[in-house]
Amino acid sequence: MSDFTDILTHGRRLQGAVKELSLEELEAVQEKLGSIIEKRKEKALALEKAEQEKREMLASIQKQMEEAGLNVEDLQALTSEKSKKTGKKRPVKYTLTDTEGNTHSWTGIGRMPRVYKDALDSGKALEDFAVN
């Protein structure tokens, strides 16, 4: 805990820390603390209400699933099918083997790799590197 929290939560240390404050200043501090406490209570109440609504919604959905003859595994099966379809890689359209024996592949989409540009500048055609 911080020093401030230690002082604030300990009665005698708090009394020593605020002994130089006037009554008006103490009342202003009390008012500000009261406001903070009220806001914190409202926030906690709103969170509890949202959590309760969430639990009720889940219970409602569970009841609907039971009435329809479904279970959680059915939903998981649906999501796993979708994930298999995503993430397909584009097919390689061009391959080039450089003078060092390294093979460079390119899908033909996006910025042209440097090795292809150099080969085209030396007089070769892009069709020479096409994958059939």
Describe the structure.
62% of the residues lie in helices and 6% in strands. With 132 residues, the protein is mainly α. A two-stranded antiparallel ribbon has the order 1-2. Helix 1 crosses helix 2 (11-17). The protein is elongated. The mean pLDDT is 89.
Describe the secondary structure blueprint for this structure.
Layout: H1 3-9, H2 11-17, H3 23-68, H4 72-85, E1 94-97, E2 103-106, H5 114-121
Antiparallel strand pairs: 1-2
Features of this protein?
mainly alpha; two-stranded antiparallel ribbon; 2 strands; elongated
Please report which band the strand proportion falls in: under 5%, 5-15%, 15-25%, 25-35%, 35-45% or over 45%.
5-15%
Q: Stretches where pLDDT falls below 50 for ≥5 residues?
A: none
Distance between the termini: 69 Å
* Helix/sheet category: mainly alpha
Helical proportion? 55-70%
Series of H and E elements? HHHHEEH
* Annotation field: number of helices: 5
- Main β-sheet, spatial strand arrangement: 1-2
Mean pLDDT: 89
Extended strand count: 2
Query: Sheet bearing the most strands, described?
Result: 2 strands, antiparallel
> If you compute it from the alpha carbons, what radius of gyration comes out, rounded to the nearest whole angstrom?
35 Å
Quick one: overall form? elongated
